[in-house]
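Ops channel
N.P.: pipeline sanity check, posting one input/output pair.
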């Protein structure tokens, strides 16, 4: 028996560090339930980059690499 499905996931975060933490949770869930994510169809967008953020948030973003799903 085979099951096929399609779904969209939306992640909202104010800093990349938070987004990466959420992606790790999604990745663990996928591994546990044998879900394969098509990273070739995965995109990220930044909105309102001019929003005032704390210095701490800006520093966290500056030291983060690109967002990744394994």
């Amino acid at each position: 028996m085979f099951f096929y499905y399609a779904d969209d996931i939306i992640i909202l975060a104010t800093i990349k560090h938070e987004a990466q933490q959420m992606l790790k949770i999604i990745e663990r869930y996928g591994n546990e339930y044998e879900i394969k994510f098509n990273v070739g169809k995965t995109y990220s967008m930044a909105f309102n980059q001019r929003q005032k953020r704390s210095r701490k948030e800006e520093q966290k973003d500056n030291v983060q690499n690109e967002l990744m799903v394994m």
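N.P.: looks fine end to end. The two ends are 27 Å apart (CA to CA).
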